[in-house]
Protein backbone atom coordinates (compact mmCIF):
# COMPACT_ATOMS: atom_id res chain seq x y z
CA UNK A 1 0.00 0.00 0.00
CA UNK A 2 1.34 3.45 -0.81
CA UNK A 3 0.98 6.37 1.57
CA UNK A 4 -2.10 7.80 -0.14
CA UNK A 5 -3.91 4.46 0.02
CA UNK A 6 -3.14 4.35 3.75
CA UNK A 7 -4.43 7.90 4.27
CA UNK A 8 -7.55 7.13 2.24
CA UNK A 9 -8.25 3.95 4.21
CA UNK A 10 -7.97 5.80 7.55
CA UNK A 11 -10.16 8.62 6.23
CA UNK A 12 -12.86 6.24 5.03
CA UNK A 13 -12.86 4.44 8.39
CA UNK A 14 -13.73 7.76 10.08
CA UNK A 15 -17.08 7.73 8.27
CA UNK A 16 -18.29 5.21 10.88
CA UNK A 17 -18.21 8.03 13.46
CA UNK A 18 -20.43 10.34 11.40
CA UNK A 19 -24.12 9.92 12.28
CA UNK A 20 -27.25 11.57 10.88
CA UNK A 21 -28.19 14.83 12.59
CA UNK A 22 -24.66 15.57 13.81
CA UNK A 23 -22.55 18.65 13.30
CA UNK A 24 -19.13 17.45 12.15
CA UNK A 25 -15.87 19.38 12.57
CA UNK A 26 -13.53 18.88 9.64
CA UNK A 27 -9.76 19.36 9.83
CA UNK A 28 -7.30 20.28 7.12
CA UNK A 29 -4.76 18.50 4.95
CA UNK A 30 -4.25 15.71 2.46
CA UNK A 31 -5.68 12.99 4.74
CA UNK A 32 -8.75 15.08 5.51
CA UNK A 33 -9.22 15.67 1.79
CA UNK A 34 -9.85 11.93 1.44
CA UNK A 35 -12.35 12.21 4.31
CA UNK A 36 -14.18 15.01 2.49
CA UNK A 37 -14.35 12.83 -0.64
CA UNK A 38 -15.78 10.01 1.46
CA UNK A 39 -18.33 12.37 3.04
CA UNK A 40 -19.42 13.58 -0.37
CA UNK A 41 -19.91 10.03 -1.59
CA UNK A 42 -21.72 8.84 1.56
CA UNK A 43 -24.09 11.82 1.86
CA UNK A 44 -24.91 11.15 5.52
CA UNK A 45 -27.77 13.47 6.54
CA UNK A 46 -25.72 15.55 8.99
CA UNK A 47 -26.81 19.00 10.20
CA UNK A 48 -23.67 20.52 8.72
CA UNK A 49 -19.90 20.83 8.84
CA UNK A 50 -17.58 23.24 10.64
CA UNK A 51 -14.37 23.82 8.69
CA UNK A 52 -10.96 24.36 10.31
CA UNK A 53 -9.58 26.35 7.37
CA UNK A 54 -10.59 28.30 4.31
CA UNK A 55 -9.22 25.48 2.13
CA UNK A 56 -11.43 22.92 3.87
CA UNK A 57 -14.44 25.24 3.70
CA UNK A 58 -13.97 25.63 -0.05
CA UNK A 59 -13.51 21.91 -0.54
CA UNK A 60 -16.65 21.08 1.45
CA UNK A 61 -18.67 23.67 -0.45
CA UNK A 62 -17.36 22.43 -3.80
CA UNK A 63 -18.82 19.01 -2.90
CA UNK A 64 -22.17 20.63 -2.11
CA UNK A 65 -21.74 20.01 1.63
CA UNK A 66 -23.32 22.45 4.09
CA UNK A 67 -20.73 24.57 5.96
CA UNK A 68 -21.74 26.15 9.28
CA UNK A 69 -20.21 29.10 11.12
CA UNK A 70 -18.59 28.00 14.40
CA UNK A 71 -20.26 30.99 16.06
CA UNK A 72 -23.62 29.54 15.18
CA UNK A 73 -23.02 26.08 16.64
CA UNK A 74 -22.68 24.87 20.20
CA UNK A 75 -20.41 21.99 21.12
CA UNK A 76 -19.58 19.78 18.18
CA UNK A 77 -20.05 16.02 18.67
CA UNK A 78 -17.10 14.99 16.53
CA UNK A 79 -13.98 16.43 14.92
CA UNK A 80 -11.98 14.52 12.31
CA UNK A 81 -8.46 15.62 11.43
CA UNK A 82 -4.99 14.38 10.51
CA UNK A 83 -1.68 15.01 12.28
CA UNK A 84 1.98 15.45 11.46
CA UNK A 85 3.03 13.31 14.43
CA UNK A 86 1.08 11.44 17.12
CA UNK A 87 2.42 9.60 20.19
CA UNK A 88 0.95 6.77 22.27
CA UNK A 89 -0.86 9.25 24.52
CA UNK A 90 -2.42 10.78 21.37
CA UNK A 91 -0.57 14.03 21.84
CA UNK A 92 0.19 15.50 18.44
CA UNK A 93 2.15 17.95 16.39
CA UNK A 94 -0.07 19.65 13.82
CA UNK A 95 0.17 22.63 11.52
CA UNK A 96 2.16 21.32 8.58
CA UNK A 97 -0.52 23.00 6.47
CA UNK A 98 -0.49 26.16 8.64
CA UNK A 99 -4.05 25.57 9.90
CA UNK A 100 -3.16 24.78 13.52
CA UNK A 101 -4.94 27.64 15.30
CA UNK A 102 -8.37 27.11 13.80
CA UNK A 103 -7.86 23.36 14.06
CA UNK A 104 -7.20 23.64 17.79
CA UNK A 105 -10.28 25.82 18.24
CA UNK A 106 -12.61 23.42 16.44
CA UNK A 107 -10.97 20.40 18.09
CA UNK A 108 -11.45 22.03 21.50
CA UNK A 109 -15.11 22.71 20.74
CA UNK A 110 -15.58 19.04 19.89
CA UNK A 111 -16.53 16.28 22.30
CA UNK A 112 -14.61 13.62 20.36
CA UNK A 113 -11.47 14.05 18.24
CA UNK A 114 -10.94 11.27 15.71
CA UNK A 115 -7.41 11.43 14.32
CA UNK A 116 -6.78 9.87 10.92
CA UNK A 117 -3.20 9.12 9.85
CA UNK A 118 -1.03 6.80 7.83
CA UNK A 119 1.39 4.74 9.89
CA UNK A 120 4.37 7.04 9.19
CA UNK A 121 2.88 9.59 11.62
CA UNK A 122 3.12 7.40 14.73
CA UNK A 123 6.10 8.30 16.94
CA UNK A 124 7.44 7.32 20.35
CA UNK A 125 8.46 10.88 21.10
CA UNK A 126 7.16 14.06 19.48
CA UNK A 127 9.55 16.59 18.03
CA UNK A 128 11.15 15.30 14.87
CA UNK A 129 8.62 17.22 12.78
CA UNK A 130 9.44 20.96 13.07
CA UNK A 131 6.89 22.56 15.40
CA UNK A 132 4.74 25.19 13.63
CA UNK A 133 4.08 28.33 15.67
CA UNK A 134 1.60 30.94 14.39
CA UNK A 135 2.88 34.44 15.12
CA UNK A 136 1.63 37.96 14.51
CA UNK A 137 3.90 39.44 11.79
CA UNK A 138 4.59 42.43 14.07
CA UNK A 139 6.15 40.13 16.69
CA UNK A 140 8.01 37.72 14.39
CA UNK A 141 11.54 38.61 15.39
CA UNK A 142 10.80 38.99 19.11
CA UNK A 143 9.01 35.63 19.23
CA UNK A 144 11.87 33.96 17.32
CA UNK A 145 14.33 35.17 20.00
CA UNK A 146 12.12 33.82 22.80
CA UNK A 147 11.91 30.45 21.05
CA UNK A 148 15.72 30.36 20.89
CA UNK A 149 15.76 30.96 24.67
CA UNK A 150 13.55 27.88 25.02
CA UNK A 151 16.21 25.87 23.16
CA UNK A 152 14.56 26.00 19.75
CA UNK A 153 15.83 26.90 16.33
CA UNK A 154 13.04 28.74 14.45
CA UNK A 155 12.79 29.26 10.70
CA UNK A 156 10.26 31.52 9.01
CA UNK A 157 8.04 29.54 6.64
CA UNK A 158 8.59 31.46 3.42
CA UNK A 159 5.66 32.77 1.43
CA UNK A 160 3.03 31.58 3.90
CA UNK A 161 0.32 33.75 5.40
CA UNK A 162 -2.21 31.88 7.54
CA UNK A 163 -5.99 32.17 7.25
CA UNK A 164 -5.66 34.65 10.13
CA UNK A 165 -3.09 36.82 8.33
CA UNK A 166 -0.12 35.66 10.38
CA UNK A 167 3.25 34.02 9.75
CA UNK A 168 4.50 30.56 10.73
CA UNK A 169 7.78 29.86 12.50
CA UNK A 170 8.85 26.20 12.20
CA UNK A 171 10.91 25.24 15.22
CA UNK A 172 13.34 22.35 15.67
CA UNK A 173 15.42 21.44 18.70
CA UNK A 174 12.75 21.88 21.41
CA UNK A 175 12.48 19.50 24.35
CA UNK A 176 9.26 17.48 24.14
CA UNK A 177 9.68 15.65 27.47
CA UNK A 178 6.62 17.49 28.78
CA UNK A 179 4.44 18.46 25.78
CA UNK A 180 1.66 20.01 27.91
CA UNK A 181 4.15 22.37 29.53
CA UNK A 182 5.85 23.13 26.20
CA UNK A 183 2.50 23.96 24.57
CA UNK A 184 1.64 26.31 27.45
CA UNK A 185 5.08 27.91 27.59
CA UNK A 186 5.17 28.78 23.88
CA UNK A 187 1.63 30.16 24.00
CA UNK A 188 2.69 32.44 26.86
CA UNK A 189 5.05 34.35 24.56
CA UNK A 190 3.37 37.64 23.59
CA UNK A 191 2.73 37.63 19.85
CA UNK A 192 2.15 33.89 19.59
CA UNK A 193 -1.37 33.07 18.49
CA UNK A 194 -1.01 29.33 19.02
CA UNK A 195 1.40 26.48 18.40
CA UNK A 196 1.07 23.05 16.84
CA UNK A 197 1.45 21.01 20.04
CA UNK A 198 -1.91 19.38 20.73
CA UNK A 199 -1.24 18.02 24.22
CA UNK A 200 -3.96 19.70 26.26
CA UNK A 201 -6.55 18.78 23.63
CA UNK A 202 -5.39 15.35 22.53
CA UNK A 203 -7.14 12.98 20.17
CA UNK A 204 -9.66 10.51 21.62
CA UNK A 205 -9.59 7.89 18.89
CA UNK A 206 -6.79 7.10 16.43
CA UNK A 207 -7.36 5.45 13.07
CA UNK A 208 -4.11 4.36 11.48
CA UNK A 209 -3.90 3.24 7.86
CA UNK A 210 -1.17 0.67 7.33
CA UNK A 211 -0.29 -2.33 5.18
CA UNK A 212 -2.73 -4.52 7.11
CA UNK A 213 -5.67 -2.13 6.81
CA UNK A 214 -6.91 0.32 9.43
CA UNK A 215 -6.17 -0.14 13.13
CA UNK A 216 -8.33 1.63 15.72
CA UNK A 217 -6.51 2.69 18.89
CA UNK A 218 -7.48 4.23 22.21
CA UNK A 219 -4.91 6.40 24.00
CA UNK A 220 -2.66 5.09 26.78
CA UNK A 221 -3.51 6.90 30.01
O1 LIG B 1 -2.18 22.46 9.24
C1 LIG B 1 -2.39 21.32 8.85
C2 LIG B 1 -2.85 20.21 9.67
O2 LIG B 1 -2.44 20.22 11.00
C3 LIG B 1 -2.81 18.84 9.06
O3 LIG B 1 -3.81 18.11 9.70
C4 LIG B 1 -1.49 18.10 9.21
O4 LIG B 1 -0.46 18.88 8.68
C5 LIG B 1 -1.54 16.72 8.53
O5 LIG B 1 -1.71 16.90 7.16
P1 LIG B 1 -1.65 15.71 6.11
O6 LIG B 1 -2.88 14.92 6.33
O7 LIG B 1 -1.59 16.40 4.78
O8 LIG B 1 -0.40 14.94 6.39
From TrEMBL:
Which residues hold substrate?
Answer: 28-31, 81-84, 94-97, 121
Kindly give the SUPFAM superfamilies that the UniProt entry links to this protein: D-ribose-5-phosphate isomerase (RpiA), lid domain, NagB/RpiA/CoA transferase-like
Alphabetical keyword list: Isomerase
Q: How does it assemble?
A: Homodimer.
Q: What is this protein called?
A: Ribose-5-phosphate isomerase A
Q: What InterPro entries does the entry give?
A: NagB/RpiA_transferase-like, Ribose5P_isomerase_typA_subgr, Ribose5P_isomerase_type_A
The reply on keyword Isomerase is yes
Task: Identify the gene encoding this protein.
Answer: rpiA
The active site lies at 103 (proton acceptor)
